[in-house]
Amino acid sequence: MKQIVEISGFLALKEIWRNRSRFLLVSLVIALITLLVLFIAALGEGLGNGNKEYIAKLDAELIAYQSKSDFLIAASRLSKDRLAAIRRVEGVADVGMLGTANATLILPGDVEPLKVALLGVQPGHTGEPAVVQGQQLGTDLSDEVIIDKNTALRSDLKIGDDLTLRVTQGTQDEFYTLRIVGVSDGQQYSLQPSVFVPFYTWDRIKPKSEAEINSSNPVANVILIKLVDPAAIEEVSASIVSQVNNVETATLKQAINALPGYSAQQSTLNLQGGFTLFIGVLVIGGFFQIQILQKVAQIGVLKAIGTSNPIVAMASILQIVVVTIVGVAIGGFMTFLFSLSFPPTVPIVFNGTTTAIAVIALLLIGPLSGLISTRYAVRIEPLKALGLS
Fold it and tell me: Alpha-carbon distance 186 to 189, whole Å?
């Protein structure tokens, strides 16, 4: 076996070196396919992450929605009495109201205003993000905010600064000035950077219709639930639904899959990635098939002087593996260079696991696509190849 590997390795590398321009061209084609696959994977991760980031990082196991809201946060309305009822259910450790809205962050100078997700959370309870700089929110009525990392990057705001939010209440634009007390890690919601406000402050400053302006009954969209024992999630969920009127519960995974457009978005991008890999199989397979057809006579000579089929097959496979590895390496390096030039507004995230899966798939498509050409190579008859039959 060792002799087979040595001889086939010599033959494979010798041919690659003598025809390096041709093989380099194929490696560059594989590099472009790698670049495309990795960017599709990163785009899928970035778009999905921008949609689900806040929910995925919640320190909670369940989310309570209004019944028949189809697990859509924007369609759900829950009053404060539901919060108290859920808190009394056995197995519930903590609960927190979450209100969602949109606002416009007014930036100083001639900088274009930034659209943000305005999230109302209860200080000290589930739903309030942990800060990486500064401090947590004070009271339920304080004029303080926590901004996430994305907001900080795109606005250049920092702890201690005052920010101005523009919202529409009734038919008028209203402006509210709040002080930044903390910065959290990335907490995007619906592909928007997030600003976290104490819940009752959020209820006061959120966009409202004419009918809501004089309302004094704060209503949350959903209630976030942290459990004493996360393993008892099914039992506690059933208890909440049976003991609290007009609510339904979902796990974080169910809530993420119910986000508008999330599942369709991910399916589309995964399908695009799959088609790109399939194109890679056809391109690599086609090249090596043509390569084998061009050197039928040489393979015939090798077999005529006693070269075995395993050596011919191994040499062909090694060529495919080497060319694929070089192409994937070049493509990975190109991807890294391109990723450095993207601004934070572009939703591209290179996740280690997703990238590793994509690279492994790219490394496998070379040998898989070369199976047909390898099979053809070992079936070449020396006399026919040399025109002596």
Answer: 10
222, containing H or E segment: strand 222-227
Given this model, what pLDDT does residue 27 score? 87
8 A C-beta contact, residue 54 and residue 222: no
Q: Residue 173: CA atoms inside 13 Å, Cβ hemisphere, count?
A: 8
Match 């009495």 to its residue by tokens: 81
The per-residue DSSP string of 115-153 comes to EEEEEEE-TTSTTPPPEEEE-----TT-SEEEE-HHHHH
259-285: pLDDT as tens digits = 887 888 778 878 887 887 788 777 777
Residues 366 and 30: beta-carbon distance below 8 Å:
yes
Tokens of 95: 């609960």
Is residue 102 within 8 A of residue 191, CB to CB? The reply is no
Rounded to whole angstroms, the Cα distance separating 330 from 121 reads: 46
Report yes or no: 300 and 324 within 8 Å, Cβ to Cβ: no
Can you name the residues that pair with 62 across neighbouring β-strands?
Answer: 225, 251
CA nearest 165: which of 154, 176, 155?
Answer: 176
Phi, psi for residue 6 in degrees, rounded to 5: -65, -45
Q: Which two tokens stand for residue 312?
A: 């011919």
On whether the CB atoms of residues 181 and 135 are closer than 8 A, the answer is yes
Whose tokens are 């690279």? That residue is: 359
CA distance linking residue 284 with residue 322, whole number of Å:
12
pTM recorded for the entire structure: 0.78
